[in-house]
Structure formats: structure tokens, C-alpha cells
Amino acid sequence: MTLADITIQLLNGLAGASSLFLVAAGLSLIFGVTRIVNFAHGSLFMLGVYIAYSLTDQFGRGSPLAFWSCVLAAGVAVGVIGFVVEILLLRRIYQAPELFQLLATFGLVLVIKDVVLKLWGPEDLLGPRAPGLRGAVQVMGKSFPEYDLVLIAVGPIMLGLIWLVLNRTRWGVLVRAATQDRDMVGALGVNQAWLFTGVFALGSFLAGLGGALQVPREPAQLFLDITVISDAFVVVVVGGLGSIPGAFLAALLIGVIKAFCIGIGDVQAFGTTFSFSKFTLVVEFVVMAIVLVIRPWGLLGKPAGEPRHTAATEAPLKPLPGWLVLGFAGLGAALLVLPVFTQSYLLILLIDVFVFALFAASLHFLMGPAGMVSFGHAAYLGIGAYAAALMVLRAGIPMEATLALGPLAAALGALLFGWFVVRLSGVYLAMLTLAFAQIVWSIAFQWDGFTGGSNGLIGIWPPAWAAEKEAFYHLSLVLCAAGLLALRHIIFAPFGAILRAGRDSPLRADAIGIDLRRHQWFAFTLVGAFAGLAGVLHVFSKGSISPETLGIARSVDGLVMVLLGGVQTLTGPVVGAGVFIFLQDEIARRVEFWRAILGLVIIVLVLAFPQGIVGFLRGRFMRAAA
Amino acid sequence: MSVLAVRDLAKAFGGVQAVRDISFAVDSGELLALIGPNGAGKTTCFNMLNGQLRPDHGSVTLDGREITGLKPRAVWRLGVGRTFQITATFGSMTVRENVQIALISHHRRAFSFWPRARDLYGAEADALLARVGMAEQADRPAAVLAYGDLKRLELAVALANAPRLLLMDEPTAGMAPKERVELMALVAGIVRAEGIAVLFTEHDMDVVFAHADRIIVLNRGELIADGKPDAVRADPRVQQVYLGGGSTFGHAG
Amino acid sequence: MKSITKAIMLALAGAVFAAPVAAQIKVGELNSYKNFPAFLEPYKKGWELALEEANAAGGVLGQKIEVVSRDDGGNPGDAVRVAEELLTREKVSLLMGTFPSHVGLAVSNLANQRKVLFVAAEPLTDKIVWDNGNKYTFRLRASTYMQTAMLIDGAVKSGKKRWAIVYPNYEYGQAATAAFKKLLAARVPGVEFVVEQAPPLGKIEAGAVADAIAQAKPDAIFSSLFGPDLAKFVREGNTRGLFKGMTVLNLLAGEPEYLDPLKDETPEGWIVTGYPWAEIQTAEHKAFLAAYQKKYNDYPRLGSIVGYATVQTVVAALKKAGSTDTEKLVAAMKGLEHMTPFGKITYRAIDHQSTMGAYVGKLALKDGKGVMVDWTFADGKDYLPPDSEVMKLRPKE
Fold this sequence. Notes:
The complex is a heterotrimer of chains A (about 625), B (about 250) and C (about 400). By secondary structure, chain B is α/β, with parallel strands linked by helices. Chain B has 2 domains: about 5-90 and about 160-245, 3-Layer(aba) Sandwich (Rossmann fold), CATH 3.40.50; about 90-145, no CATH class.
């Protein structure tokens, strides 16, 4: 690379960082104040792109003033949408257990995507270029778009404006105070509800504006939401939660690193070619992993204090009352004899339910008793599945053996990653699990010769004795039920009890001689094995495996199942998995806009059962019984 | 021999000498109060004793055994129980389970996977709870306890490994005056009966002078007094620190 | 817990027993409608039109055809479940559809296991008929290899020696790149591939990629970008002057799905594969176009052709087999010939690939819109490797 090449790639990186910074700043503000992990932030960005497309296409082609007015108007429109969403939906569920709001925003993602598809149609929509900024300027003998120069300036300008709002207005001071300690702000007599609404609207506005600014650079399209959301989370976490300058720095860092990876291209070393261009697939997650390992609170974040419990503490765990034990035993027996009475599709659906119930329960073990939220739990499902698939295809190892070796492989993966993970806490911990999951995903995605690359692997079927659906159904039922019972038993055993104790008070645990990190590390590993078992069953039930099994979407599915059922219950994940898979299957078959309907159903469930479905039922029936 | 012996303990943060070469000892069955104005170095001193901070130099011995620089977990294993200024208990568990957890850890069953935690050491836990007057509340969730009861629970937890030494940070902070007296009377009764040594920090001088067998006073990292309550009360340097510092004896902090 | 379970059981039972029984031939169709709507909405219109026409003509074997269509969720795990549902609950006679390659392969894998015919409509991956080919899977659309091969003539004629390559980083892009390098190197001695850029699908940093390509000073570019990546690359490349004097080849860029969004940015002179729907004058295409526009009041995209032709294939196979028996259908598919809007196609017995072709031409601007000019039709049968090579690629049955 010549100096001119380096300069131009630096500028490319800076230009790419601007709108990412805006999105991330909005996400960071929202999280800082309301503690909502807003999955719908990418959807707000996407709305910004679409709205700005329509406005600029209609009114913004003439003059710069018209164009920039349209961009701003799109941001404001998204801000208003955020305002409405906060009032109608989120405001009602702030008291729910931590992370539950995530479920509501997941519902929103589904709804917004289908609404956009309905309103704007399926085709990519390339907007007009910005009037007055259509051309390029010469930078060291190379053409560089004028608009990108403006974007480079927009980042620092918006950083300055946000800084002014946060530091020079009373409202901004309250926002900062709430980021530090939101209980205190409530105690100061500030109307918390409107503060939250305002912050959510501002965050949405920033997301919308970030989207609107992209219109001259990229077409409006339906994948923008998921493309942006993971990048935005990475930027927020790398920068340090709640730190706007941190987000700015992180956006620049990641933008520039990406541009340089592209600029460097292929490098020959040690007899092989390393493609930095391909490395852009996962580079932001590698950066995040490195930053978090070295700085557990991001670049400019501050160590978080002991988190205060915003929701009511879980009630003490009790063994099930006899009538429920009988009930579950009856259900188990009914499931065992079910194949006698029904045709096979129900069995096929139930195999999925069993597998994901085990997967969700293993995630719940982490999120609930162990107090470690994972955003990348699918990694262990996937490692188990890939390990089994590779053993069958490459080494001819029989399925029976992979049922033990697959979970072992997943546990080894979890052992490796867990060592780093348990050194963090809260959202940082969650994001590090995501980073590792993405790294595993990218390996599976990229290593064509071994893992089959993006196509994955096929031809992984059970041996003859388990090939019939009925036999495989029984195998899945027995193994998943055993896994669920084992997980449940461990929660009550000393090991699990100590984990719960450590979650409640790490300080006290340490003061009574407990090495909590070692416990958590072991728990992470153990749970990896259970997820891995689910993965092995999954791959043999489908006959194939692809990188999606390791992907973010699968991890999110797991979270949704756990939260839907109720994170503070032990049967919740099982019910959540059943309800989610059943809903998806039924709705997708019956209606065209199934995503929106599924999203709406989730939102309704969220509003009706803020403690999750099982949490609700327990509140209804168990208290009466106790 | 003293249960706890501290010699020439020192710690500096940056250029600030938080604790300067202090030495003292606590005997079996003795309640030693550590007092001093804010910023005197009490917390630093405490954290060096319980293992959270590593001293720059000096030594801490427990029953003659060197424990300087050990981690809190290891310090606990050697027989040092702790209570916190803001209570730290396991909110999602019952009172009995809180104590059972400490007992499980004490008996090194933390990595046990087979029995149910609630079936282990129940009788021992109940005995401990009875000693702190919490037997009747054994089945209540810790999260719903009144503050005074939480303090008692902490005491029961701290006693679970039959400690030689109790480190109590502000044991009566946040309690009503009547409760304070009751709690300290309870502590005094237990430690004297079992020969446990106690080191506690405290802001409430009524509590200090009513219950401490001996008092040490820290000021700007230095130990300026060590003696019986009456002697300390009469010490001119102590009076200077408290009265001259603008705060009064009775309501410091 | 129990009441929920009960509710689920009841609803399931209702769904199970309510399945209608009719004297129709049921065809299962599954596709990633919600993931790739730009291609698949026209695709659906295409097969619905063909279905309507087939049934209006009396169906086949004296029965009407019913297509049971499902969204496969865009991932292999869900797609396999959906396919199983079609097979076990709907009792369809055969399967058709799928779009992304990994979903196509997973369903093909299932078809092989369950011994049921699968007509893969769109997955481009070469593996579905070669490396991972199986007895029960047949593929309609011209594959990655075929479409790449169609562009090679243009590459050779350009006389350019220094090539840059840009492709979306997944199997399609990788396979296109590998095929291009192999085929071009075989025909142009001394050809150099000076830079390769593989941005993640849907996430191209187009400015940086354009500059990185310019940095290597190529005199031609081979691209397999499509969709938003293509639009971004075109816009950045235009602004930065990357394409001045450059020969550019781009797979798929002439398909209306990807060409139309470019509007007045359409880069002139690019050599592409695609579908110049407004200009094709063959009788079979004119008939299709008229019927399509009459029914939908919209113009067809390439997806429409694929959907239309897939149902044509199914109808032809059923007619030839004279039965819905899988083994007879598979036998009928081998060497099956029928007309499509793109002319006559044949499903090759040797590898189950149809000979459906594609149009190759140059991009041009007309009234602020992108069009294909100087196009010719490339018949798929002319762009496949020799049989001896194909035999080596495909596992023995």
C-alpha cells in the first residue's frame, strides 16, 4: 500500500464509522438509562433508511436544503416511532425481570420487518445522491466521494451535539445521573417514565438519522436491521456501555480496521495465503473479544458497581409438590406412548421441541441459577452438532459414540471460552459469549474443506435402528428428558445451590470460601455439554448442518424461549421452547405475513405475562397451593 | 497467645499513605473496636486483614500462622468470619439455606452433585440460627427479612465455619438504636462463650463504649491510641482528633 | 404448565385431523419467501400462473394439481422440518423449490433419505448436482458454473490480462471465482489475477473495496456481486472512477431483480448474465409475457421464469411418468424435455441438471433505466463440462 492508498482507506474507514456511531450512540443511551437491550435498534435504523429513501426520492433531489431536511425529517419520524413504542409497549414492562424487555424488542423486530416489506415492497431501493455532493474530490491523486467527506465531519459534530445536550441541559444531566444510578433519579422526584420515554425517543432518532445518512451510500433493503444491530452492539460494548465518546472511538476503530483489512487484501506468509478481505467477515467480533479480554469494561467504560436488583428477587426454589411431579410423570408417559396414536409429523415437531427445550434449559441454567446471560449459546449447540457430523462423515464414528463425544467437544469449547467469559459480568459477559460464538461461526463458515463452509455438511443420518421417526423420537425424548432432569437436579445440588448463592451475592460467596469464578467456569463448561447434546440430536434429526446452527439467530431463539417461559422458573425454558416452536410452525404455515403475526403474538405474551408464561402460572396456582 | 496479631502493617495508594506501620492484637473472647474519623484508614486496614488488599509490608498472623496476602477465600478457610456494612446474603434462598451454603462450603462439598443442598447440614444450620435467635424465621426467604434480622443471619453465616476471629464492618450500621444494643449484646455473648476474637469498626460511639473490651483509634493511617474504653476516652490525642476535627464523639459519621 | 400443554395438544390434534382429503395431485413447495422476497415474490407469481394454466388445461393424469406452499424459514433446520411436514402431513407426491444453496442441499439430502423427488428450482450451487448429487434431486436453473462459463467468451474477447475479482464471501461467490479462474486460465495464456476481494454477503464496504481494487491496477474485473452489495459497489465505483476503461463482467447483474434498483447508475458496457424480458421475441416467451402481464399487471422478473418453469417441469414429469410413484417420476425426470419461456430444456440423465440457459449481454442506460443490449441467448447445454469430467464430479448412485 502506498501512502495515498493508506490515506484513502483511512478516509473510507472514517466515513463508514459515522452512521454506525450514531446508531451505537442511540443504543448506548437507551441501555444506559433504561437497561433495555434493544434488539429493535437495527430495525429503527432500517426504518430511517426507508423513510429517508421515500422522502429524498420525492422531495430531496432538488437542493441541498431539501435533501438535508428530508434526512433530518426521517430521523425525527423514527424518533416519533420510538416515542410511541416506548409509551405503548416498553413502559408497561420495566418491572419485569432483567432482560425481559429484550423479548418485546425481538417481537418488534419481526413486526417492523414485515411492515417494511408490506409498505415498501421486496425490491432494493437505491436512493438519490445528495444534491451538491454527487461527485468526488481528488485526494492524493485519487477520487474520494464528496458525500463521504461530509459524513466524516458528521460524526464529530454529532458527538459534540450529544455532549452538549448531556452536559449543558438539565435533561441531559438527569440522563447522565440515571445512567449512573437510576434508582437515585427516581428518588429525586424526577418523573422517571418521561425521562425513559425521552431517552428512547432520542436514541431512536439517532438510529433513524444514522439510517437516513446512509441513503446516498446504500440501498434500502430488508436485511439492514440484522446487519446493523450486531455491529452497533459491538461498537457500544467495545466503547464501554453508556460512554458516548467510547462509542465514537470504537466506531472509528472498527471502521478503520475494516477498511485496512480490505486495503491489505491477501498476504502470503508461511506458505499460505491469508485473506484479510475475508477476515472482514468476523473482524469486529475479534476486536471485541480482544478488547473485552484486556479491558473488561470496554475502552472508555467504567467498572460497573454491584448491579442492584431492579426486579423482585426470585423466590426460594422448592421441590415440586407431589401433584405436579405426578403430572410431569404422566406427561412423560403420555409422550412415550404418543407414537402409537399419532401420525409422524407431530413426532417430527416434538423432536424439535425436545431438542430446543434441552438447549433452552441449558441456557436457562446459565442465565438463571448461574447469573451469566449468554448471547452466544448457539455456539455450543453448533459445536456439538458439527463435532458429531464431522466424526460421522470424516472418521466413520457411529452415532452412538457421537452422543457422548459431541457433548464432550462442546464442553471443551465452553471450557476454553468460559475461562475468559467468567472474568466479566453483565452485558459485557453476554457480548463476549457472542464474540466467541461469532468466531466459531466464522470458522465453520470459512473452512470449506473441513466444515463444508457456508453450505455446511449433509448426509448425517442415524443408523438403521434409529432411522425410523418413531425410534428417533424415543431416543430424543429419553435423552432430552434425562438432560432436563439432570440440569434440574444439579440446580438443587450443592454445586447449583452455590452458583445461585454466588449470583445473589458474589461478595458473600467469596467471604465464605467459595471460588465463584471456578464454579462459574465449570458451570459454563457443563452447560456447554448439555447444549452440545441438543446439537448432536439436532444434526441427526435433520441429516444436515450449516453454519446457521451456530449463528446469532439461533442464540436469540434460545433467549426468546427462556424469556417467554419465564427466566425465574425451572420449567419455563421447556414451555418456552414448546410454545415458540409450535407458534412458529403453525403461524408460518397459515399466514403470509407470519413474521409480523409471530412478533405480535410475542408482544401480547410479553404484556400478558411479564414473568413469563410459567412465572404467570406459578403465580396463579402455586401460591394458592402453598 | 493472641488470635490475631498485626505487625507494622502499611499500605499506600499512589502517594497517599493510607495505613502506616500499625501494630495491634486481639485475644480470644475479646471485642476490639477499630475507630477513627472518615478517611482514617479503617477500611484499608480491614481489607488487608480479610485478604481483599495486599499490604505493602507488615504481617498479619492468625493463631501464629502467617495469613498476609492470602485471598479472602483462604483467609476464611483458616477461620476468619466476616460481616459487611451493607448486609450480603443470598436473597433467593431461605434463611436456613443461607447458613447451609456456608456449611457446605465449610465441609468442602461445593462441587458435590448428588445430594440436594437443602438436605445437607440442616440440623447444624438450625442450631446456628437458634444461637442468633433466628430459628423461627428459618423458612422465610432472606429477601423479605427486616434489616436487623438480616444482620443476625449474617452473623449466623459468619459463625458457620467455627471461626477463631470475626471481622465485623460497621455491624450496626442502618439499624435502630434499640436493635443495635440487642445485636451487640448477642455478639458479645456468643464470642465470650466460645472464645472467638472480634475486631469491629463502628461509627456509633455508644455501641463502641458499651461493648468493646478494648479500642484502637486510627487517624490518617496512624494508630494513635490502644487501650480500655475509659483510657481511650480520656486520651487527649483522641479527643483532639474527634473534637478538633469538628465532629462530636456521639454522632461521628 | 398442564393447561398450556393441553391447549397445544388440542390445537395440534385439530390441525392433524382436519387435513383435507381430495382427489388431487399434491405437490409440496417450499421457499425462503420472507428472506429473499425480491426474487421470490415474482417466483411465486410465476408458479401460480403456470399452475393455473396447467389446471385450466385439465391438469395431469385426469387430476388437478394442488401446490402446497410453505415458507422454509431460510435455514436448513427449519426447511427440513417444513419438508417433512409436507411429506408426512400433506402427503405430497414430490417436492420443489428452495433458493439459498445450503437450504437446497439440506432438502436434497432429505429427499434422498426419504426417497422422494425434489425439483430444486433455484439454488445455484454446483454441488447439488455434482459433489453432493443424488438420485432424487434435479435442478432447473443454470448453475454457478454454467453462468460463469457463459461469461468466459466475453472475458477472452476483451483481451484483458490483469483481472481483479470481487465476490460475496460464501459458496456461490467462491465457486464462481474458482470456475472463472480455471476456465479463463485455460483459454488465455499469461492471464493474471491481481487482486481478490471477498466481502461478507450483504455487508460490503464498497468504497474500501473499490479503492483496494484500483490499488492493484487491474484492467478488468470479474464480479459475482448481486443485490445490495452490487448497488453499493456500482455507486462507489462510479463515484471513484473505478470503471473508466475497465472491462467488467458481473454474474446475474442483468436480472431485473438486481438491475432495476440501479436505475440511472447502471454501469454501461458491463457484460452480464440476465433476463432482457422486454425484448425476447420467441413465441414461447411472448405467450408467457402476455399471460403474466395480463394476470399481474406487472412485468416478470427472472424469478417469475424460474417459478413458471418449475411447475412446467413438474407437470411434464407427471405426464411422462403417468403416475405419482417416486421411482417412475425419477425415471421420467432423466432426460425429460419440455418447453419453457426460455425455450426447450432437457434434464440431463448424467447429472440431473437442466439445460436451461440464460441471456448474456451488455448493460446500457435507456430512459434512466438499466437494460441489456447486444444480448444473445446462451443455451445451458453448451456451457457444461464434458461428460467424462461430470462423471468424476458426481458420486456413483
